[in-house]
Amino acid sequence: MVTFKLKLKNMDKIFLIKLFSFVLLGATFVSCNSVPTKEISATLDSIYLFQADFRTVDKKLITKELAELIDSVKTKEEQETEEMLLSEHPTDKPSIIEGDLLTSLYEGQNRYHIAELSNDADSAVLLVNFEQTGYNEKWQDTLIFKNEHGWKLDNVLYNNKYTDQYSMQNVLINYLKSE
Hints:
By secondary structure, the chain is an alpha+beta fold. It has one domain. It is about 40% helix and about 20% strand. The protein contains three helices and four strands, in the order H-H-E-E-E-E-H. The protein has helices at about 10-50, 65-85, 170-175; strands spanning about 110-120, 125-130, 135-145, 150-155. The chain has a four-stranded antiparallel sheet. A hairpin with a 3-residue loop joins strand 1 and strand 2 (about 125-130). Helix 2 packs parallel to helix 3. The longest helix is centred in the N-terminal third of the chain and has 39 residues, at about 10-50. The relative contact order is 0.14. This is DUF3828 domain-containing protein.
């Protein structure tokens, strides 16, 4: 075994201590920050790779508030459908939400990647680049995640290029208020 003895001046020792502290602190920051990134990415994949309809999103992947809104919408849609079937015009179309609510494009996406992610302990904001190759469309929406015993999707803020609606929650709330 070879050992090295370094004679360091006080200034060199202080510099090395600061350097070591900085490296250690930086490694801690990166490792702490990568946990939400990995968890958020996994949630994003579970929602966007396998979902075609906001109504079927796994409730474990979304916030309690968003889950309650979706459940209320599903209940209202079922009531609207039943009422229409029992009406004088049973072949008319009931009032339901159509199109993709998980993105601002009605047809939805078939490719995405996270362009930017910023987070603190309780929330995260993601800028996500979406693509619909069948329609040759590319756009960016903002996704809001909250840490509710794990990172969960809370809202999708829409790009105004495709819709006049502000967000997914806004669409759901407006539908529930409509008559």
